[in-house]
Structure formats: structure tokens, C-alpha cells
Write a structure and sequence with these properties.
11% of the residues lie in helices and 41% in strands. The protein contains 4 helices and 12 strands, in the order αββαβββαβαββββββ.
Length: 189
């Protein structure tokens, strides 16, 4: 039987829920005996989970409990991250968070390297060809293993347009203007 977080944790945890939160993973399980949690990153890179000093957790549906907890320590553990969160001091307390979704503020993410982008920043960008003709709006990205692929919502089409997010096809990314220029033509698909 799964236990709920303690009343003390629920009372002590901050409950502010900023607008800029991005889901960055979920709690896999307890790790060790002293309250550490094992987190599964939502992407191949765990940079946000490792850099943030505060994480926001939301209980799995249908429960609507939310917690804001300070991160005391965090480190890689294989493909996962293990973290010690303020107020989670025992294995039982950590186990009570199993399945909870983990969120971080976008502004707390470490800056990406030149030529690299967080997927969340690309969503909503207008994609145009070299001549400025609209190709669609980024509604998501896929990881094919070899590269990321932009999923574009195209007006009047049920299926998304797919464009590999590689230098061979992506000419320019201007996040400020929310615009991506691609060496692509609508008739390619």
C-alpha cells in the first residue's frame, strides 16, 4: 500500500506554482535509506534536474497535491538523477513521492551551449523555408536516436510535417523572433 507524504512535509513545503514551470521528469522511487529520491529525467540530458535549487512536484492524477521543495543535493546515477529534497528525511517519505511529476522553472535551466536549444524553447516557433514561405508551427519534437525531428502543425493537414533538426536542413534559429528557417520545401512531403 502506497503511503502519502507526511502532514509535516505537506505543511512545510512551499506551494507557489510559477507560470514558467516545465516538466523535467518524475520520481522513480526512493534511493537509499535517508530520504533520497531517484528521478527519471524527461530528456536525455538531466541538466535542469541537476542545476535547479528548487523543484515543484505534482501528485499523479486524480490527486491534485503540489509541493515546492528545495534541492539540498543532486547528482547523476546512471541515466537517472538522485536527489535529497528538503523535508524528505526518510525512505518512507521518499517512497511516498513515487510517481510524482517533477517540474522546474524555465529560467533556472542552465544556459545551452552555442548552437544548442532546449526543445521547450522551440515549441511554438514558426518554421519557414529559405524564401519565407510558411512550413508550419513546431508542436513537438521527436528523438529518432540519430537526431531530433521537428513536428510541425500545418494548417489544413491532419498529419504533422516532419523535418530533421540538423544543420543540413536548419539554416537559422531565432528564438527571440520565434522563427526557424529551414532548407525545406512543402512538396518534400
Amino acid at each position: 500500500m502506497k503511503t502519502a507524504p507526511s502532514a509535516e512535509l505537506l505543511a512545510a513545503a512551499g506551494t507557489d506554482w510559477p507560470d514558467s514551470l516545465i516538466e523535467v521528469g518524475h520520481v522513480l522511487d526512493a534511493w537509499g535509506t535517508r530520504g533520497w529520491v531517484k528521478l527519471a529525467p524527461a530528456s536525455a540530458q538531466a541538466a535542469a534536474l541537476l542545476a535547479c535549487k528548487r523543484l515543484w512536484l505534482s501528485a499523479p492524477p486524480p490527486v491534485s497535491t503540489r509541493l515546492a521543495l528545495d534541492v539540498r543535493l543532486a547528482r547523476h546515477h546512471g541515466s537517472a538523477v538522485v536527489a535529497l529534497l528538503a523535508g524528505v528525511a526518510t525512505r518512507d517519505a521518499a517512497e511516498a513521492l513515487k510517481g510524482w511529476r517533477v517540474h522546474a522553472r524555465r529560467e533556472d535551466f542552465p544556459p545551452p551551449a552555442d548552437g544548442e536549444y532546449y526543445w521547450v524553447d522551440l515549441i511554438g516557433c514558426q518554421v519557414v523555408d529559405r524564401d519565407g514561405a510558411a512550413l508550419g508551427v513546431v508542436e513537438g519534437l521527436l528523438d529518432s536516436g540519430a537526431q531530433a525531428i521537428l513536428q510541425l502543425r500545418v494548417e489544413g493537414r491532419k498529419q504533422p510535417r516532419l523535418i530533421p533538426f540538423v544543420d543540413a536542413y536548419i539554416v537559422d534559429v531565432d528564438l527571440g523572433a520565434r522563427r526557424i528557417v529551414a532548407d525545406w520545401r512543402a512538396e518534400f512531403d
